[in-house]
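Input record, target 12 of the design panel.
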């Protein structure tokens, strides 16, 4: 299957000019629509944020933040792909969600691959993740990680 090209620079350009004082929640909301509008026709079935709730039990530690374009599971535990990326502080690219076995949290049984990018604060701690899903196996690679990080940096969600 040929690689699907995604125009992350256009998404980042749409986010230029966000006021510095905008709260994280507002920044996440402002990122979701441009991400969805650019990516849903490019092999993406869902995009959304999960926010860490420190102090909550691990099995309900992350809650759904802004997302598109359908409901998703919430709260979720740290055992899934989102929790793994949050705990490690590193992007997780899952070529085939079947490889995760019982650790996969299936909000949409049609999803076949995903990329999860942690949002790291100025102290080096992950406080949320951006989760992007696809109905196709192998839909994401390192260029998506780089592009999504550029978008998140432009929005002031990561340093």
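The sequence produced for target 12 reads:
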């Amino acid at each position: 299957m040929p690689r699907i090209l995604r125009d992350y620079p256009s998404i980042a350009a749409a986010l230029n000019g966000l006021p510095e004082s905008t709260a994280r929640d507002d920044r996440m909301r402002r990122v979701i629509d441009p991400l969805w509008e650019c990516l849903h026709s490019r092999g993406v079935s869902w995009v959304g944020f999960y926010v860490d709730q420190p102090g909550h039990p691990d099995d309900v530690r992350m809650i759904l933040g802004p997302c598109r374009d359908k409901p998703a599971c919430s709260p979720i535990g740290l055992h899934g792909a989102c929790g793994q990326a949050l705990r490690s502080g590193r992007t997780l690219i899952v070529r085939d969600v079947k490889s995760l076995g019982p650790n996969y949290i299936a909000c949409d049984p049609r999803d076949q691959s995903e990329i999860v990018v942690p949002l790291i604060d100025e102290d080096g701690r992950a406080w949320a993740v951006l989760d992007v899903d696809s109905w196709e196996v192998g839909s994401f690679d390192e260029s998506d990680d780089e592009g999504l990080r550029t978008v998140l940096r432009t929005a002031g969600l990561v340093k």
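Helices lie at 8-15, 24-39, 81-88, 142-154.
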